[in-house]
């Protein structure tokens, strides 16, 4: 909590949880979240594209080995859950997994490091620097991803089952009697909407909480160092797990969308 | 939670990244992996085949070796038999030759002895005649006393 003794803990935390924002209201954009998100996505694509360009079925290099491990892992996950033929799901899952993993990993960047670097480089007063570098701790980012997945769920549901089939699925179950069809529709709609909501909120909640705890730890003075270490070590579990869950649920939802009853 | 255009930005980035990944990242990498898997599978199958071939070859070699041993044994057997036969034949021939040589020798010796005996007889006869001449101090008329001489020669 070196950012100034004049701040109270509450002010410190509130300051760190505020995004770097341009615009007002709905038209606002969080430059830090979106910037880091796009940057990390480009990091992912650059590395993987560089390997893809030189990919050889012969003896692979070390980077190719590492990338192939990730690709193989995602491919296995997709194949174990999704049994149809779809050119999109595997690369979609790979993008989600690696991108979310990288975005979650920003949680390991010490909370005051980036503001202080900016302060040191530009001379801006710390109080004016807003930098929240964990994109997945921003609901806009997680909802953006979940909305993309949701659109795909709807798209494939209609593509595979047709509009009628999709509507039938929404209305004729779980209760078989026609008089209960409106009830069915409400239940199924809630189920359908719960998917992207839970997807987005789970990721956001985990990472936001993680970030918040880091900030809390940062306010306890000298003893924060071992505690930071413990919390960061705990995130060795949380960060890949949340990325994996997001990917896995995406695959599951999309394979459900492909199932014709 | 303030939801704003960041969400839309993220959604657009998501779509673009997924499309890029689907077009330019996933296919080459998974292609390389699957190709390598096929190569490895082929290699394993080939090595399996080679191991089986080796086993077969070893079996074949063993059986051929056994056969060769049997053949060699039979050849050696035949050779021994042949040798024994040759030895026997040779021995027989040698025996016959020996007998023949002995017989010839005996015959030669016999003729030689007869000849010598004949000569001796003649010489003895001459000596006897000479002795008799000396004793009688006169010559014996060969013709007149040839009957005595012949008798003498026959007695010797």
Helix content of chain B: over 70%
Helix-strand category of chain B: mainly alpha
Overall mean pLDDT of chain B stands at 89
Query: Termini separation of chain B (Å)?
Result: 169 Å
Radius of gyration of chain B, in angstroms, nearest whole number: 60 Å
Low-pLDDT stretches of chain A: none
Oligomer: heterodimer
Short description:
The complex is a heterodimer of chains A (261) and B (156). With 261 residues, chain A is an all-alpha fold. Helix content of chain A is 71%, strand content 2%.
Index terms:
heterodimer, A: 261 residues, two-stranded antiparallel ribbon, 8 helices, globular, B: 156 residues, mainly alpha, 2 helices, rod-shaped
Describe this structure as you would to a colleague.
The complex is a heterodimer of chains A (261) and B (156). Chain A is mainly alpha-helical and 261 residues long. Helices cover 71% and strands 2% of the residues of chain A. Chain A is built from 8 helices and 2 strands. Chain A starts with 8 loop residues before the first helix and ends with a helix. The mean pLDDT of chain A is 89. Chain B is rod-shaped and about 190 Å long. Classes of the chains: A mainly alpha (261), B mainly alpha (156). Chain A binds chain B through residues 23, 25-30, 33-34, 37-38, 41, 44-45, 48-49, 51-53, 55-58, 60, 64, 67-68, 71-72, 75, 87-88, 90-92, 94-95, 99, 135, 138-141, 143-145, 147-148, and chain B through 1-11, 13-15, 17-18, 20-22, 24-33, 35-36, 39.
């Amino acid at each position: 909590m070196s950012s100034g003794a004049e701040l109270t803990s509450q002010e410190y935390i509130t300051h760190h949880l505020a995004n770097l924002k341009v615009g007002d209201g709905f038209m606002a954009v969080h430059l830090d979240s979106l910037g880091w998100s796009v940057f990390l996505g480009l990091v992912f694509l650059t590395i993987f594209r560089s390997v893809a360009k030189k990919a050889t079925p012969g003896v692979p290099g070390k980077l190719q080995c590492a990338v192939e491990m990730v690709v193989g892992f995602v491919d296995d996950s997709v194949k174990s859950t999704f049994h149809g033929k779809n050119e999109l799901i595997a690369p979609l899952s790979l993008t989600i997994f690696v991108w979310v993993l990288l975005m979650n990993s920003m949680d390991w960047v010490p909370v005051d490091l980036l503001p202080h670097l900016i302060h040191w480089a530009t001379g801006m007063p710390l109080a004016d620097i807003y930098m929240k570098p964990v994109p997945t701790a921003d609901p806009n980012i997680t909802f953006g991803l979940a909305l993309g997945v949701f659109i795909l769920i709807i798209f494939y549901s209609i593509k595979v089952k047709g509009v009628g089939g999709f509507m039938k699925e929404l209305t004729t179950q779980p209760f078989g009697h026609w008089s209960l069809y409106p009830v069915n529709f409400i239940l199924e709609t809630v189920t359908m909407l719960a998917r992207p909501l839970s997807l987005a909120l789970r990721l956001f909640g985990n990472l936001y909480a993680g970030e918040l705890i880091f900030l809390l730890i940062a306010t306890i003075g000298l003893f924060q160092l071992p505690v930071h270490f413990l919390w960061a070590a705990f995130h060795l579990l949380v960060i890949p797990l949340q990325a994996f869950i997001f990917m896995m649920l995406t695959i599951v939802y999309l394979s459900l969308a492909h199932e014709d009853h | 939670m303030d939801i704003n255009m960041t969400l839309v930005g993220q959604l657009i980035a998501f779509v673009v990244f997924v499309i890029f990944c689907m077009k330019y990242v996933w296919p080459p990498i998974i292609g390389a992996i699957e190709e390598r898997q096929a190569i490895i599978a082929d290699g394993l199958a080939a090595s399996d085949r080679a191991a089986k071939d080796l086993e077969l070859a070893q079996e074949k070699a063993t059986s051929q070796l056994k056969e060769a041993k049997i053949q060699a044994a039979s050849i050696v057997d035949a050779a021994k038999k042949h040798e024994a036969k040759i030895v026997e034949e040779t021995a027989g021939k040698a025996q016959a030759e020996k007998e023949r040589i002995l017989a010839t020798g005996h015959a030669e010796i016999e003729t030689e002895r007869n000849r010598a005996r004949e000569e001796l007889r003649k010489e003895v006869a001459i000596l006897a005649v000479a002795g008799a001449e000396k004793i009688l101090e006169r010559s014996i008329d060969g013709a007149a006393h040839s009957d005595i001489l012949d008798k003498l020669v026959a007695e010797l």
